[in-house]
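Sat 14:20. Reprocessing the chain from the morning session after the first attempt stalled halfway. Input below, unchanged.
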Amino acid sequence: MKISVIGAGYVGLVTGAGLASLGNDVACIDIDEGKVANVNSAKAPFLEEGLDDLLGKVVGARKLTASKDYSSVSHSEVILICVGTPSRSDGSVDLSYVNSAAAAIGKALASSKLDFPVVAVKSTVVPGSTRSLIPVLERESGKKAGKHFGTGMVPEFLREGSAVDDFFKPDRIVIGALDGKSGSVLKKMHSGLPSVPLVETTIETAEMIKYASNSFLATKIGFVNELSRACERMGMNVDEVARGMGLDSRISPHFLRAGPGWGGSCFGKDVKAIVAAQKSIGLRPKILDAVLDSNEEQKKRMALLLEESLGSGLKGRKIAVLGLAFKAGTDDVRDSPAIAIVRELQSRGANAVLFDPAAMPNFKLLFPDAPYAASIEGALEGADACLIVTEWKQFAIPGVKFVRLMKNPTVVDSRRILDPADMKSAGVKYKAVGAGA
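Finished this time. Tokens:
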């Protein structure tokens, strides 16, 4: 198939490269000249495991190209909208990028000679958003939806850090289509993927499935984080509790991992959006409101745990903060727990020295004046305490290293990647989130 992908971010580029590897001719369209140049040079503009290798294959085979213009749309059988849907100040979704993409697609469709191209949204949008694009597409193209072109919603379920693997090994495929003809084209697009459960439904239901999925996962993490606080006070280990829970097939162990709070480009934005959508129709989403509040509280608790471990306030103390990306394996700092944590440390007068093996350039855009270390050792040198925020493997260092480098070997491990026995034998004052003394 000939496919155009609007947007060369995480979703668009991984999806485009994946579809190209299945034998399709894919054109990525993005307004960012830097991204376009990177893609055409077979280099991902962000860190994502396996993506550079995949781009090397499909760009080299000329199955994937990138451009700023929409000329490819006029001869594409499927056009996927994969642009950003940021939050407004009230938490609702800003659809300006989606609307702009739809208008540009409509103009390009005016000259299309294809029988029935399908415009599908892959960006995360609240129910009703995809259908609202139909008048825009019709106006700009001069054509009728359902007669001259189709529409649909095909939500993505890609996890940063494992997005390439997720594309090729999905748990399920969800297709919300305007009509049967649109659905058939979108099913054809997925035909090269493994046989997995296929949910064929309405456009609005497909939109809601994406929000329901992310909101539930965020709730699951929020629950185990709240549980971790009780485990700390009551002398238990949250990992053992979560393991016992997760063996129940109704619960499963996935996303039952306590930490410093969830972050990233999806959970916060999506939970806020579905909360705002529910409030706009007169509902009170008490559970999801609480999930958002609890997550912010978990981030701020990291400073409290440092104070408890040190036995005093943080003013004037050097705190080594290891990990700025919202998760290991990515350089993405969008809504990273480290943002709220560093702000809280600074508000308490701490000298937070920051290090991350991949995300420091992006974090410097948010905290240009903060002190950054060139290495783990540089961050730990002379520090009063260390806080591990991101679960990078290289942070799992032996206790003797903390003792050798730090002024006061005190460690708060929000990801529980260190060996408690090793820390104790080395003389490190060690506190793991969710683990009682």
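The chain has two domains: 2-201, 216-432.
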